[in-house]
Amino acid sequence: MLGIMKRALKIPKLVAALSLITAATSAAQDTELSALAWLAGCWASERGDAGSGEQWTPLAGGTMLGGGRTVRNSETIDHEFLQIRRNAEGKIVYIALPSGQAETSFVLTSAGENSFTFENPDHDFPQRIIYRALADGGLLVRIEGSRDGVLRGVDFPMQRVACDAR
Fold it and tell me: Can you give the residue ranges of every domain in the chain?
């Protein structure tokens, strides 16, 4: 009976230790995701018509949600729903659901103070998505990859705007 009681007393200690490990892991994961938090807000395209650009929610619940649209001649001609979060394997991913296309995930391959890169070498185009904060407060989104054996890159320069100004 004494052996059972001793083992029973160890269970709360084990649960407490596991809780601390889980909390530490969760905090580390949140820290990694929070390094991308500067993206939150509204970004107007420098090349598109008024209303073109992206909007990102602040990090909450381990996820940043985004949306983008392209406006031409006062009509939305393209849109995209976006997420940045951890996948089932614990990797930070950028999930894109462009209008008329299947959802695609890109894995974070590098993150610095002012930029981050996501990649999916199996995707048709792009295989790489880069977000870079610029010194003037702007944002450069670049997509890169190979299509039909030709390396390509497309830049999307944006400026931060008040979200109600879009």
Answer: 35-165
